[in-house]
Amino acid sequence: MRIVTYGAACTLDGFIADRNGGFDWIQSSKGAREIMANYWNTIDTLLMGRKTWDVAARMSGQSPTHGLKGYVFSRTLTESPHRDVELVASDAGAFVRDLKRKKGKGICVFGGSDFARSLFAADVIDEVGANIHPILLGSGIPLFQDAGHRIKLKLKTAKPLGGGCAYVLYSVVHKRG
After folding, report:
1. 34-43: long-range contacts at Cβ-Cβ below 8 A with a sequence spacing of 24 or more?
2. Any idea which architecture 4-173 has in CATH?
C-alpha cells in the first residue's frame, strides 16, 4: 500500500505561515534541500487543498505539481483550476483511502492544515515530516488542527539541518490494524 506523508516547514511553535500567510522566516539549507530531493524521488502524487493550490500556483506562476499527478480538493470549485490537476469534490478520506490501494509511489499531502485535518480524521495519513525552524511566531497558520481524536506517532528520524533547523519524521500509529 502507498504511503501518505504530510509535512511542511514550520516554526518551533508549530506554524507553517504567519498570521498574514507569510513565510519569510523559512531558511534554506543544504540538508533540507537534500531531504526534499530524496523525498521527491519517492513520490508520484501531490494532494492539495484549494487554499494551498491558490498560494502555490500564485508563487510558481504555473502548475506547482512539478510533473507529478496532482489532485486539488475543494468543496467550492466546480472545475479543475489547471489542466495538470484533477479536482476532487468528493469525500477526501474515502478518495485517499482508494488512491492508497492503487499502484504507484508515495503520496504527498502538500501544505494546509485544514485539508490535512480531514485526512487525519479519516486516518489515511501514514507519516508526518517537519523541517522545524528556530523561530517563535506566536500566531499564524498552524501545522495541525484538531482531527477529533488523538494521533499517536512513532519517531523514525530526527536530524539537525544547519542554521538551527531540525528535521523530524514520524510514522502514524493507526487506530485500525
Report:
1. 35/131, 35/161, 35/167, 39/5, 39/108, 39/129, 40/66, 42/105, 42/106, 43/5, 43/68, 43/105, 43/106, 43/107, 43/108
2. 3-Layer(aba) Sandwich (3.40)
